[in-house]
Amino acid sequence: MNIVLLGPPGAGKGTQAKRLAEKLSLPHISTGDILRQNAKEGTQLGKEAKSYMERGLLVPDELMSKMLIDRFSNPDVKKGFILDGYPRNISQAKVLEGLLKQLGLDIDLVVYLDSAEEIIIQRLSGRLVCSKCGMIFHIKNMPPKLDGICDNCGGKLYQRSDDKEETVKKRLQVYRQEASALIKYYQDQKKLSRLSADEDKDIVLDNIIKLAQAKG
Ligand code: AMP
Prior knowledge:
Elements: E1 2-6, H1 13-24, E2 28-30, H2 31-41, H3 44-54, H4 61-72, E3 81-84, H5 90-102, E4 109-114, H6 117-125, E5 127-130, E6 136-138, E7 157-158, H7 165-188, E8 192-196, H8 201-215
Parallel strand pairs: 1-3, 1-4, 2-3, 4-8
Antiparallel strand pairs: 5-6, 5-7
Helix pairs in contact: 2-3, 4-5
Bound molecules: adenosine monophosphate (AMP).
């Protein structure tokens, strides 16, 4: 099953993609996670991407294409994948389509996680991420058992630098510029299903699984 998760920053794509990937035993491919890992390791890609990420802007398409091609050269994608954070615009959607075609693969389902803007800002401003395993928490809605420590692996929790209010606003603005065209693109291909991301996270996950089962 090849699934793409779309939606505004803070809709819960990362949280749902992670859980879905575990449930379906598929690789979770998060372009944001790959970029953050590269930035942490100080690779050339990480250095180039960092200044865009810190400003809430999209990393240029050429860099993203290279990164995507590299990730999809890993044979684990043959059994299926959950793609989160890519594509962000039509040009990326076309790159993905071409790449999948070359690999003899296709997207089975695109889930658009829709969320109200007030909820997004509230979610992102309280979001905490594990520096070791990437698990996502929230200061109020999903606090860790021990302050600042990941329940899953004991790693240290941190706030993403692009989750500060000003950067969140910029990210939402960037998202809105591209979103409707991207949604239409997949609607026209009859691949898109829309879900509310503002329900309880277990209900959202169940709803995604039902959509996947209907396709499978
Ligand atoms: P995310 O973790 O998906 O919220 O992504 C964090 C940041 O990484 C974004 O604000 C962008 O700067 C960058 N990024 C992630 N995925 C992409 C993409 N597909 N195209 C361009 N930039 C991206």
